[in-house]
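Troubleshooting: if your tokenizer reports a length mismatch, compare your output against this known-good record of 127 residues.
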Amino acid sequence: MAKDVLERILRGRPLNRRSLMKTMAAAGVGMAAMPLLPQAASAADEALVYTWSGYNDPKLYPAYVAKHGSPTFSFLGDTQEALNKLRAGYVCDVAHPCSDDIFRYRGAGVIKPFDLARLTDEADFLP
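Known-good structure output:
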């Protein structure tokens, strides 16, 4: 941050070590408490998909879009970022890591099995 921005945050108080540390501590506490806040609820039947940019094209899954509409998407930057976000408590319905990361995600405890009772096409799934 630029010094003038910090001074505006501190409301005109002189920028010294103590005022800077108080401001940074307040920001850190706020950021640390954010995962404790309840997550905004989405529509019960609206899926949240955490995936790579480009997989949000409705042409990739026309049958789903025709029946349910397009899901909500959240995009990941890289696999380590995605794993860290999921470990921190990010809630989504489907996450889309790369195939070589599946064991790492499973070992971290962030992957849950599909609820087969809710699937109508279970026979089409690989074991």
